[in-house]
Write a structure and sequence with these properties.
about 20% strand, four-stranded antiparallel β-sheet, alpha+beta, single chain, disordered N terminus, five-stranded antiparallel β-sheet, Immunoglobulin-like
Length: about 450
């Protein structure tokens, strides 16, 4: 048996060649939910850097000073365990939501989707409806076409620039960032990062769009692993909708041998990923609900029941019921709660005082002219609070010892200071060559927090 196979059919194409996706604007209940969530996230993103707490920016990730300030708490690189806990909690929470509601994170709260649809909204306002954009792109260049596209890209760039400066205001104090912008005195590093984030936002939301979700986002590739037969995903009721076909509004579909799908193609036109949900579940689907609102709108016009396209599970699709109490979903929920509990315990045990003890590298011990044994140390203290703090230093386990401090233990908020310390004691009072003891560092005022650092005294 001989097969007639063309050479180009044997070439595996990792990237699907297709033209631009012209997204149709759509309104509906799920889009109201998405817009409310998008506005809340946008307002939080823009407004948070301008919130002040105790005279300082409430949320600031100061990379230069290696201090991450979140309201009353200041975190340092040694507190990066918190980042690990946050990533773990976020991962399990995402697994829980995905197993329960599919890719609703992608459709409603992912920054890529929020910015992509925001850019599409601008495109719709400046270039017209979907059909107008298709028609205009097919026409040769004219003054009207150049003006509209130029205005669109200018607005896109301004939005990208504002996004970049807002993002940078989390790392550079917002007042300082925008004051330097008005004075045209940004440094090279600031210019580089603002330009990079502007370019990335403009490219991702304006040009890459759905390609970022389909080809570059790893979540779209492995999210199906978390699905089961009870996961709620956007699905098309094939039994009810087929056979699809156009008809008049007052026509009886049963007499025509048709299902409820009128083949209006609106579900495809509103999809930001450009897929046809009627072909079944596809990994490109981001569960945004646009096709549901479009289909419900059509069903309402034809006086058909809504829900031809809806959020439903495989069990519901087959006439069964969806169970919430299933092992995988409960397991993800318990792991999410557990990680948050562990993180809360870690935060509760965290003090605003950190200290490290190191020995002088020159010598372990020395004897002065009075016969006193001396051990030199260096104490590094970090003030993690946002107030000026004074600390006291004492000995525990070496009560006969004398403490000589070569400096002040007064630290500014977020300051780290290293102070030389000498411990002296009569050698005859020591029974062993090596005696363990502890330095006790305490706040002079305030909450009287204290920490103990064990070390050794050498005779």
């Amino acid at each position: 048996m001989k097969f007639d196979v063309k050479e180009e059919d044997l070439i595996i194409k990792p990237y699907k060649q297709s033209g631009p996706i012209y997204v149709r604007e759509q309104k509906g209940r799920f889009q109201r939910i998405r817009r409310i969530l998008s506005w809340c996230l946008m307002l939080a993103f823009i407004g948070l850097p301008w919130v002040s707490y105790q005279g300082q920016q409430a949320v600031l990730f100061d990379v230069a000073q290696q201090q991450f300030r979140i309201f009353s708490a200041t975190f340092f690189p040694q507190d990066f365990m918190l980042v690990a806990w946050l990533f773990m909690a976020g991962a399990f929470a995402l697994f829980f939501i995905t197993n329960w509601l599919g890719r609703v994170w992608c459709g409603y709260m992912c920054p890529q989707t929020v910015w992509m649809l925001m850019y599409t909204w601008v495109e719709h306002r400046l270039e017209g409806t979907r059909n107008q954009r298709i028609k205009r792109d097919a026409q040769p260049w004219s003054a009207d076409k150049l003006t509209r596209k130029g205005a669109k890209h200018l607005v896109w760039l301004l939005m990208a620039f504002f996004t970049a400066t807002t993002f940078m205001s989390y790392f550079i104090p917002a007042h300082e960032l925008y004051s330097d912008l008005l004075d045209l005195s940004w440094g090279g590093i600031t210019l580089f990062w603002v330009f990079l984030f502007t370019l990335c936002t403009y490219g991702n939301a304006g040009w890459l769009r759905e390609k970022m979700c389909i080809y570059m986002c790893p979540y779209s590739r492995f999210q199906s692993v978390m699905f089961d037969k009870d996961t709620l995903v956007v699905s098309y009721d094939q039994d009810r909708g087929e056979a699809r076909g156009p008809r008049k509004r007052k026509a009886d579909p049963k007499q025509l041998g048709l299902g409820d799908c009128v083949d209006c193609n609106l579900c495809v036109e509103v999809c930001p990923a450009g897929i046809d949900i009627r072909n079944g579940l596809q990994y490109e689907c981001i569960n945004c609900g646009l096709c549901i609102d479009a289909c419900d709108q059509t069903m309402e016009k034809f006086n058909y029941p809504k829900g031809l396209i809806a959020y439903r599970s495989e069990h519901q699709q087959n006439g069964g019921r969806t169970s919430i109490w299933r092992l995988k979903l409960v397991g993800y929920a318990l792991m999410t709660v557990l990680v948050f509990v562990v993180m809360a315990i870690w935060l509760n045990g965290r003090t605003a005082l950190e200290a490290y003890i190191t020995r002088d590298r020159g010598e372990l011990s020395r004897v002065d002219y009075q016969g006193q044994v001396e051990n030199p140390y260096r104490i590094s203290i970090i003030n993690k609070s946002q107030q000026v703090q004074e600390y006291t230093l004492s000995l525990e386990g070496l009560e006969q010892g004398q403490l000589q401090l070569h400096g002040q233990l007064r630290l500014q908020p977020g300051e780290q200071k290293e102070v030389p310390v000498t411990v002296r004691i009569d050698g005859e009072l020591l029974e062993r060559k090596v005696t363990p003891f502890s330095f006790v560092i305490s706040e002079r005022d305030g909450e009287q927090q204290s920490i103990r650092k064990e070390t050794r005294f050498y005779k």
